[in-house]
Fold this protein.
Amino acid sequence: MTQTTTAKRSASARRAAWPALCASALVFANVAVLRMLAMDRALLERGVRTSAQVCARARGRGATHGIEGRPAIYYRFQVAGRHYLGQATVSGAEFRKLRMGTVVSVVYLPSDPATNALGEQLNGRALATRFWTLMGFDLIVLVAVVALGCVRARRGRGVPPPVPRVDPPLGGC
């Protein structure tokens, strides 16, 4: 096997790995979001509403500050004599409004009160918005991967130039 053939196979393998990597990342993201949607739906359908009290607030970036650096509140509630702690990311306006000690509405699963969410954030419209956001993201990634694959395939193959048309000489051969 020549060095050129090995280089071509290596380049081909790298081109083939890119869509597989994108597909893997997309599946991972979809599973995470779909699990979150399933939890929210379970809370909507079977959840029990109770009161909770804001016990901590956090603003900024980091693992304990919610998703994408959004402000987060932490709340405490009680079910059957046991205390539970929950967390929710909130908008800046909600963060300013929800001071320490503020009473908020919380929805929890009776079978697992550790699965809970702020009552104000749970509604069918929010679920639909999350779902369609996910589908839009999937479509964008799919189009980008296909377009990139087409561009790379075109470059890799080297589209041959058009063959010039040659007319036979007048009077025959």
About this structure: The beta strands are 48-58, 72-79, 82-89, 103-109, 112-118. The chain has two domains: 8-45+123-157, 47-121. Residues 52 and 104 are 5 Å apart (CA to CA).
